[in-house]
Amino acid sequence: MNFKVLDKKSKEKTKEYVIRNMVYNIEFLNLEPGEKISENQISELLNLSRTPVREAFTSLRANLLIDVKPQIGTFISYFDIDMSKELLFFRSSLEEKAVIEVCKKDCLDNLEVFKKIIEKEKILHSSKEFEELLALDNKFHNLIFEELGYRKIPSIIENNTSYLVRMRILRLKANIREKNYIDEHEKILQFMINKDAENASKILKNHINELVDDMNELSEKYPDYFKSYN
Predict the structure, then answer these.
(1) 184 with 85, same domain?
(2) Domain co-membership, 98 together with 130
């Protein structure tokens, strides 16, 4: 197990600390799909009692990140293509509506921030700094909502689609669409600047749902990670 222990934040509750550590290691595939874990194991790694770990496991199970098999054990959940499609539909529906509304604005309040994100992505795209690349990608998409003054929606999406993050990380590691998504960010931004809602929403939808197409290629490269192969 290649488990990375994160530093505890000031005033962070123990349960939330456990969840943050677990989510990080699941998302970045330090804990691999299908890998067996236990409360004792995680308690020892984090030097904590089993109680907050047990509580964290309950939350992780609700978010589809772990599976509990009675009398057998607890496992990191496999990639489920059908579930991933549903979550992508949820995310895509919200972002398409948002980008259409952004195109109605006279100007973009965060135009320079959008540009800086894209420039950083171009610099980092071949560096394999997956954590930073993911953060930049999230920031780009979150800014679309922030243009409308919606600052809570990104966290709602994040809380309900963390299941998809590790799929995005796996895609980066597999060098699938390595730079294509940056080009698409540029196009989305240009369409928003031009107030072209039709093309902005169209390319955004394709941009998000490309992950559906990539799942087939990923399942061939990493068959042991996918539910349909187990």
Answers:
(1) yes
(2) yes
pTM: 0.85
Edge-to-edge strand list for the sheet holding 36-37: 36-37, 73-76, 66-69
The answer as to whether 98 is a domain residue is yes
The 10s digit of each residue's pLDDT in 40-63 is: 999 999 999 999 999 999 999 998
Do residues 197 and 94 share a domain?
yes
3-state secondary structure 95-119: HHHHHHHHCCCCCCCCHHHHHHHHH
CB 108 within 8 A of CB 155: no
User: Which residues have a Cβ under 8 Å from the Cβ of 176 and sit 6 or more positions away?
Assistant: 214, 217, 218
Q: How confident is the model at residue 212 (pLDDT cuts 50, 70, 90)?
A: confident
Identity at 82, one-letter amino acid code: D
